[in-house]
Specification:
The complex is a heterodimer of chains A (about 400) and B (about 250). Chain A has about 400 residues and is an alpha/beta fold. Chain A has 15 helices and 14 strands. In chain A, helix 10 links the parallel strand 9 and strand 10. Chain B has about 250 residues and is α/β, with parallel strands linked by helices. The chains are: A alpha/beta (about 400), B alpha/beta (about 250). The complex binds pyridoxal-5'-phosphate.
Chain lengths: ~400, ~250
């Protein structure tokens, strides 16, 4: 199978465009603008130039020798953590910001969870001279204070979302409310493969560079595709990006969700934020609050194409606990000298748990971001654990 | 719903449709009070966790009702027991109906005597399965029309809407503004030119004066946040007082 443009915004039974009527013309305009830009060599050339000279693409592929030996498999990392701003998010944002300029918009609106998408959007806005407003849940602003300051340094205004669970889903609500009122001059720079058509398709196309590069790099290194391709899944953009390079081959595709935000693991089909997809919700249709150690994965839904890939059995979705994630975070730091973001540490946590099933196989993991933003949080947690253990020791 | 609104129009009157959040405080008393104070029909919100088209006032009402444990069925069951003499529409988000099951939701509405449904995140292109289920159950599907739509799009919306066409008065979420946006009157005018279906304008109609102004062109007004604010601050008596003032302004 290959990943074509979804007809009518549908990936099988999932996707669509469930937005308030005032936004329908904006979505149609965006769809047409992206289709024409994506077919335009001039636009593609301009974007590729920025991806190379500004973001630092292509990102390298790193073989993990020590960790591979420890786990009994062959682990390769696609190093999106080395991109400018520290994660894969920049790929999408540079594309959407260029598109916004092409559409004559002067203002970007974005939501952010961990702050990585907000930082990337603020960065692109600074680069292209656009106004930028980022919505962030009040809870996340505390967890990721450093990224709030970064966005402000970059000239963006950060507004707190104070309703509901005060995390990513509520930041999306606020961003959509802003967009309804400002649609004439603003572009909603959505940060994952979710939302109404054309976002899931457009954001995937902007991230497929990850998978395309990785396939070529794997073929050079291994002489073939890897046996397994894995990535963490919040909304699912870094996962779709790397999957899209391999979906027409034989590699097993594995998305990893946090146990507290497992849309496919614990959800049923529903409609929120513009598309139909698996969704954590109660029996009455109220959306549940996701809860995990990583702000970037605290989302009760998942992009519609992942729901489709799960439904047809082309990809499978696993979930991992916070404790497994912390162990993986430490493991990669210690064995390879790479401090990962907590989000991709989810994917590593699954690899670590599944090492017997994966023994002897080649595993490509999308290292979607670096851990700088999480060091504070991990320090607090790990230092607390150490002193607790110390107390226990004395008590015993 | 449509019959009642057409009757009001043919008598030379303007339709007044207040909105109240189901499950908020003594909401059933407030519905009866609004009907007594001159509402032609009432829109009842079924609270949803992620109300993206609603501003702070309705969000607050929504959150309070959810915290009190209301469910879609508890609201609908209460409506079924209510007899206040005016047609009722429910306003909720699509996931509530989807989770319920579209056919089951439509038939429960019909059984509870609800005339119409407004699902603001279900635009024309996605409305098919729901509208079919609603048609079959005899429930009217009210569609929104917005200032951003082309004439061609407005015509398609007017052709598919039932009950009335809900003209969105401004680009923005529900809430009270100091002045009526000029887009509200323009919206009403564009819709009136292309359809015989009753044209009601809502979103940004917050005072009796604003309602009167938009109803020089529109067939009626939907008043949401202003009414919910009264309910939050003063309960059913305050709702009755405000609805009465809107009635006077429109008559
Ligand atoms: C490093 C990193 N990876 C992954 C994600 C999750 O997003 P997605 O599932 O769209 O890749 C985030 C979100 O903030 C992130 O910062």
């Amino acid at each position: 199978m290959s990943m074509a443009e979804p007809v009518g915004g549908l990936f099988g039974d999932f996707g669509g465009r469930f937005v308030p009527e005032p936004l329908v013309p904006a979505c149609e305009e965006l769809e047409a603008a992206f289709r024409s830009a994506w077919a335009d060599d001039g636009f593609r050339g301009e974007l590729n130039q920025l991806l190379a000279d500004y973001a630092g693409r292509p990102s390298p592929l790193t073989e993990c020798h020590r960790l591979s030996e420890e786990m009994g498999l062959r682990l390769l990392l696609k190093r999106e953590d080395l991109n400018h701003t520290g994660s894969h998010k920049i790929n999408n944002v540079l594309g959407q910001a260029l598109l916004a300029v092409r559409m004559g918009k002067t203002r970007l609106v974005a939501e952010t969870g961990a702050g990585q998408h907000g930082v990337a959007t603020a960065t692109a806005a600074a680069l292209l001279g656009l106004e930028c407003v980022v919505y962030m849940g009040e809870v996340d602003m505390e967890r990721q204070a450093l990224n709030v300051f970064r966005m402000q340094l970059l000239g963006a205004e950060v507004r707190s979302a104070v309703s509901g669970s005060r995390t990513l889903k509520d930041a999306i609500n606020e961003a959509m409310r802003d967009w309804v009122a400002t649609v004439e001059n603003s572009h909603y720079c959505l940060g994952s493969v979710m939302g109404p058509h054309p976002y899931p398709w457009m954001v995937r196309e902007l991230h497929r560079v990850i998978g395309d590069e990785a396939r070529e790099q794997c073929n050079q290194l291994l002489g073939s595709d890897p046996d397994v391709v894995t990535a963490c899944v919040g909304g699912g953009s870094n996962a779709i990006g790397i999957f899209s390079g391999f979906v027409d081959g034989d590699a097993a595709l594995v998305g990893v969700e946090p146990a507290g935000g497992a849309a496919i693991g614990r959800g049923v089909p529903g409609v929120v934020h513009g598309s139909k997809s698996f969704l954590m919700q109660d029996e009455h249709g109220q959306v549940l609050e996701a809860e995990s150690i990583s702000a970037g994965l605290d989302y009760p839904g998942i992009g519609p194409e992942h729901s489709h890939l799960a439904a047809i059995g082309r990809a499978r979705y696993e979930s991992v606990t916070d404790d497994e994630v912390v162990a993986a975070f430490e493991l990669l730091s210690r064995t390879e000298g790479i401090i990962p973001a907590l989000e991709p540490a989810h994917a590593l946590a699954w690899v670590s748990r599944a090492r017997q099933e994966l023994a002897g196989h080649s595993v490509l993991l999308n290292l979607s971001g670096r851990g700088d933003k999480d060091v504070d949080q991990m320090m607090a947690r790990l230092v607390a654990e150490t002193s607790n253990n110390g107390d226990d020791g004395r008590a015993g | 719903m449509e019959a009642a609104l057409r009757a009001r129009r043919s008598q030379g009157g303007k339709a007044l449709v207040p909105y109240l959040t189901g499950g908020l405080g003594d909401w059933q008393t407030a519905l009866a009070a609004a009907a007594d104070a001159g509402a032609d029909a009432i829109e009842v919100g079924i609270p949803f966790s992620d109300p993206v088209i609603d501003g702070p006032v309705i969000q607050e009402a929504n959150d309070r009702a959810l915290a009190d444990g209301v469910t879609p069925l508890s609201v609908l069951d209460a409506l079924g027991r209510l007899d206040i003499g005016v047609p009722l529409a429910v306003m909720t988000y699509y996931n509530i109906a989807f989770r319920f099951g579209l056919e089951r939701f439509a038939s429960v509405l019909a059984e509870r005597g609800v005339a119409a449904a407004i699902l603001p995140d279900l635009p024309l292109e996605e409305a098919g399965p729901w509208a079919e289920a609603a048609d079959a159950a005899g429930v009217e599907t009210v569609l929104l029309a917005a200032p951003t739509a082309s004439d061609e799009r407005l015509a398609r919306i007017c052709a598919r809407t039932r009950g009335f066409v809900y003209g969105v008065g401004l680009l923005g979420v529900t809430g009270v503004r100091d002045e009526l946006a000029s887009s509200a009157v323009v919206m009403a005018g564009r819709l009136k030119q292309m359809t015989d279906v009753p044209v009601l304008v809502g979103v940004g109609v917050g005072t009796p004066e604003q309602a009167e102004e938009v109803c020089r062109v529109a067939d009626g007004a939907v008043v949401g946040s202003a009414v919910v604010r009264q309910m939050l601050d003063g309960g059913p008596a305050a709702v009755s007082e405000l609805v009465g003032r809107f009635r006077q302004a429109l008559d």
